[in-house]
């Protein structure tokens, strides 16, 4: 019996039907690629929607921050006072504390105003002399008409400056409105936030309630841990900077310490920017040597923050790789400016914590 002829083998890289064979690695990469693109589109759509309600979103975020800070104090006072009175006492106490700090900063700047003007004039002259010497060797007449040039520039752009000032006044009204709405939200979050969340969960289908409960607990635990930790980092940085600048005799030590406190809420880049401002003030008022000491202070505080304080914060909330933190800060800044840089890291931490809790709800609910 004759044997049937053997079919020719398919050439490499092709299936038996003649279609080219796709390598498994490429198929896997394509599968992940379209999923990443889909997630990116959804995230972009969410940011676009939130951008239309940016002030409301910022107010709710600030309300949650105030709640995370004030609620433990209100809970402690509620042991001795009725719950509404405890909430009101805690909030009023926090407002008084913030206003007291701002008043201290204003009085410090006002008391040093006359001395600062003389120091800065002398500092500018000193900087000019240094720029005239090696290695810059700028001509001595380069700064002669600098003041007149500044005056001409202000005169020629007076209308622009006035419109900018009016825009700044409008911005101030918007900021005060957002703060008022944040305080309004925080009153209800502190007083009955758990009941509000329970009501929201009760409106969902029965099969989704447990998942939302687990996710909510994980998200709030991470958010409060991160908020308390970043407050500790900011306060520690502010104290270190204030003491160091006061010891070096740099003017405006208290306002610069407050600037450092606020800048610490932007991880990785906020603290160096604030200390760079302090270095400029030191250069103009105390000279090059003190400015170099402040620059060294930037390095020291950066090491303390990066290797000691931030690991503690992340261990309280959720462990995020420094690369993830950096990408989150830059991405948030690109998407929403300074506000995005501030909220990016806690949002990423909360999202990762929720993901971990939903993947192992038994462990997350312990």
Helix content: over 70%
The separation of the N and C termini measures 75 Å
Mean of all residue-level pLDDT scores: 78
Number of helical segments with 4 or more residues: 12
Tell me the series of helices and strands, N- to C-terminal.
HHHHHHHHHHHH
Shape descriptor reads globular
What's the gyration radius in Å? 29 Å
Low-confidence stretches: 361-366
Strand content: under 5%
- Main beta sheet: strand number and arrangement? none
Would you report the number of β strands? 0
Q: Structural class, from helix and strand content?
A: mainly alpha
Descriptive account of the structure:
The structure is a single chain. Helix content is 82%, strand content 0%. It has 366 residues and is mostly helical. Among the domains are: 52-117 and 165-203, no CATH class; 217-366, no CATH class. The radius of gyration is 29 Å and the shape is globular. The model is unreliable at 361-366 (pLDDT under 50).
Short key terms for the protein model shown above:
82% helix; mainly alpha; 366 residues
Task: Describe the secondary-structure layout.
Blueprint: H1 24-52, H2 54-77, H3 83-111, H4 113-132, H5 146-156, H6 158-202, H7 206-248, H8 253-263, H9 270-286, H10 288-316, H11 322-359, H12 361-364
Helix pairs in contact: 2-3, 2-6, 3-6, 4-9, 6-7, 7-8, 7-10, 7-11, 8-9, 9-10
